[in-house]
From TrEMBL:
One of its GO terms (molecular function) is nucleotidyltransferase activity. Pfam families: NTP_transf_2. This is Nucleotidyltransferase domain-containing protein. Residues 22-54 form the Polymerase nucleotidyl transferase domain. InterPro entries: NT_sf, Polymerase_NTP_transf_dom.
């Protein structure tokens, strides 16, 4: 939770932001909205927009609120999915403003209902940005300003993950077999980096499969294993087993091969659990 002072600051900031042309609503997102934050966690504010946005006004607000020099990035400057925003420091606390286009959110909701999803290259997202996570972000968010109730009405439709999407996330675990085969070959060559990339992706896909089985929205890779461990169908000791599987400790081909085998056994247990 935020301190009383910082909560008042965030509320005032949200009121300023929603007054900007094109900003429909403002939410608190990220780990603080889900009560999964650390004391040092950033405050993430989502700016939901529609139509033309007055980015110059957002520049002015960012400069007024932040104790450090900043500007509001323009669409696409940060990448195709986390496309723009601003990094601020307010009373010593990092505050991130992140823009979300409501039309794109609604498009992803339509795709989710059809069971469609994909992971896209995006800075800061090693697995890739899950496009339908736009929906999960809104479901988990704490709405701060929503003067037309547009966001609340949209969120009420999205609370439960569609069965088609849940089934598709479960089916996506097929890729684990390919990744484990590739990792096994690379382990014999002592290719540490490639093996760990393959195993990390395998583990995260398994977590998404668990989320799909339990119809639980997740938003990105951060603490995904810990979150998956709390899901009803998670195998016992999931987080511990992942930690052990991804630790090469003594290095070399033999250690890598043990990591591959441990991950293979974990995936097999996940498949049994979600069957």
């Amino acid at each position: 939770m935020l301190s009383e002072h910082m909560d008042r600051v965030v509320q005032a900031m949200a009121r300023d932001l929603v007054a900007v042309d094109g900003v429909v609503a403002v939410v608190m997102g990220g780990s603080r909205a889900r009560n999964a934050h650390a004391p040092s966690s950033d405050v993430d504010l989502g700016l939901y927009t529609r139509g033309a946005v007055d980015f110059d006004a957002l520049d002015e607000l960012a400069a007024r609120w932040s104790s450090t020099s900043t500007r509001f990035a323009r669409p696409g400057e940060w990448g195709p999915w986390v496309d723009c925003g601003a990094w601020l420091e307010v009373d010593g606390m990092p505050v991130d403003w992140i823009r979300r286009d409501l039309d794109r959110v609604e498009q992803q909701w339509t795709r989710a209902q059809r069971g469609e999803h994909a992971f896209h290259a995006q800075a800061g997202h090693p697995l890739g940005f899950l496009d339908v996570a736009y929906v999960g972000e809104l479901v988990h968010a704490r709405i701060l300003q929503d003067p037309t109730d547009a966001l609340q009405l949209l969120r009420e439709r999205m609370e439960r993950m569609p069965d088609a999407l849940g089934d598709a996330l479960v089916a996506g675990l097929w890729e684990a077999d390919l990744l484990l085969t590739q990792a096994g070959k690379a382990a014999a060559r002592g290719d540490d980096a490639f093996v760990l990339l393959c195993l990390s992706r395998t583990v995260l896909l398994a977590c998404h499969a668990l989320a799909g089985r339990d119809r639980r929205w997740v938003v990105n890779e951060k603490r995904l294993v810990a979150e998956a461990q709390t899901m009803p169908h998670a195998p016992d000791g999931l987080e511990r087993r992942v930690r052990n599987a991804l630790s090469t400790v003594d290095g070399g081909a033999a250690a890598l091969e043990r990591c591959v085998e441990a991950t293979r056994e974990l995936v097999a247990d996940v498949r049994v659990a979600i069957a």
